[in-house]
Amino acid sequence: MSARAKPAAAPALSRCVLVTRPAAQAEPWVQWLRAQGGRANALPLIGIAPPPDPAPVQAAWAGLHGWGALVFVSPNAAEQFFALRPEGARWPSALIAASPGPGTSRILRGLGVPAEALIEPAADSAQFDSESLWLQMQRHDWRGQRVLVVRGEGGRDWLAQALSDAGAQVDFICAYQRSAAPRSPASDALLAAALAAPAGHVWFFSSSESVDHLLGWCPSADWSGATALATHPRIAERARRAGFGRVLEAQPTQAAVWACLQSLAS
């Protein structure tokens, strides 16, 4: 190899996928990727904590029958809301639970929400987000219905506005807090390895906030040689603005993510 020649990029299956989701969701992805024969490590960039005041969530559980639907904006919203479920409480079979994608739906079903109570984007949706969820929700008559949006602190209000325009009374509840994940010797070692060998890693982002936290960890890093895999166009755009040299997009499903990783070898 000449002095000017560049080494070939690492094949997809030899790249280590850094799963940046919160710890509770990162580990199942890591285990699944490894089961497929890939290399993966959890490097959570978002920390999740209980809400600053659990009383509103507890009150919501006590009054579930008064709502027409609950919208869970993410797996974290579902997990943290159900973490405060009173002992013995069950999801009312007639109460709609709305989910923006398969990850949240899977969590809700596992927590006892009947499949027939779920509204979620169509399986062949171009994206799994509020807009795709609304395409399904708008088939219902929301006039006079009370809808509770379960989320963290802040967030997009697009779906809430669409529901309000359709005649619903929309309220919000904070079920968890987000922050930058705490650093540790293990996370610092993974980060150092990724910075030293960008061609051997893929950053798997499911949130623009994860990209922001990574930049906070490494404000002077050069990401031009790094590859990002984003699960939504907004996240992909954030990664591009952060300087990632290669940004791929895939739906947040196992099949789509795996196909995207394999495409790196071609």
Question: Quick recap of the structure?
Answer:
With 266 residues, this protein is an alpha/beta fold.
Folded structure, characterized:
With 266 residues, this protein is an alpha/beta fold. The chain is built from ten helices and twelve strands. The N terminus is likely disordered.
What Rg is obtained from the alpha carbons, in whole angstroms? 20 Å
The beta-strand count equals: 12
The first-to-last residue Cα distance is 22 Å
Number of DSSP helical runs: 10
**Considering DSSP H and I runs of 4 or more, what fraction of the residues is helical?**
25-40%
Order of helices and strands: EHEEHEHEHEHEHEEHEHEHEH
Q: Roughly what fraction of the amino acids lie in strands?
A: 15-25%
Structural class: alpha/beta
Tell me about the largest β-sheet: 5 strands, parallel
Segments where pLDDT lies below 50 for 5+ residues?
A: 1-10
Which word captures the global form? globular
Strand order of the largest sheet: 2-1-10-11-12
On the 0-100 scale, what is the average pLDDT?
92
Draw up the topology in text.
Blueprint: E1 16-19, H1 23-35, E2 39-42, E3 46-49, H2 55-62, E4 69-72, H3 75-83, E5 96-98, H4 102-110, E6 118-119, H5 130-137, E7 146-151, H6 158-165, E8 169-174, E9 177-180, H7 185-196, E10 201-205, H8 208-217, E11 227-230, H9 233-242, E12 246-249, H10 254-263
Parallel strand pairs: 1-2, 1-10, 4-5, 4-7, 5-6, 7-8, 10-11, 11-12
Antiparallel strand pairs: 3-9
Helix pairs in contact: 3-4, 5-6, 8-9
